[in-house]
Design goal:
The protein is of the alpha+beta class and 277 residues long. The protein is 21% helix and 26% strand.
Length: 277
Amino acid sequence: ESISPEALRELMPGLETGDLVAACYEPDSGYADPYLTVTSYAQAARRLGVTVLQEREVTGIRLVKHRVVGVETAEGPLDAPCVLNTAGSWGARVASLAGVGLPIHACRVQVAFFRRPPGHEAEHPVVGDFVHASYFRPETGGLTLAGLIDPAEAQAIVNPDHYAKKVDSEFVWDIGERLVRRYPALEDAESTGGYASLYGITPDWHPVVDEVPPGSGFYVCAGFSGHGFKLGPAVGLMVADLIEGVSEPRFDPHLFRYDRFAEGEPVRGQYEYSIVG
């Protein structure tokens, strides 16, 4: 819902709103712990009969007459009538094993942590600040996590197996300044480090969800460009219907088709400033 700067200040006292005309408030939105989320999904999958194989590198996609019949791994072959590529920042590499060129680049992104100062220990709402191209949210242990909402991050292309995982000191300084401009209460917050991770980014910052090429049994669900978590539930249903060949899918994957880039029809959002991840 759209709210006034005055209403925003009531929701989050101490927030700087003098440069705002309006704000969007999503009372039902939230965030999740990444590690616990992934491990919980794996546990749920196992309960449903899925075999989860970890630390097993895929070294090839087995094809017979241009149709998938399985995968090669570092520990031997696995038979499969279809393969779903959900390799994220490694999506293009896995696709190349099937002879598919996927426009996904691994890009390095960073976050920093700040310990909230005395008198401001209480958790605060999640804030996406498009004026200063940044966001911040509470983190466990009385910390605030802060990062960028900046398309320029797509320029930091890296090898996903070899990139600097420690946060840059320049980034900590920059994001700290942006944080304090919006939330002056954290001016005396203590920097406690941070880390760098990866986004698998496509040219239009939206995923590829498709069978590539058609009839091959090789499916792609990758390139979410940092905003895949919120799309996950709907895309999960979308991919399930795509693989099963449902004639009336619950969610039409056409928007995310592989050929959209060659057709000159990238996904365009209503707003031009960025993707909210």
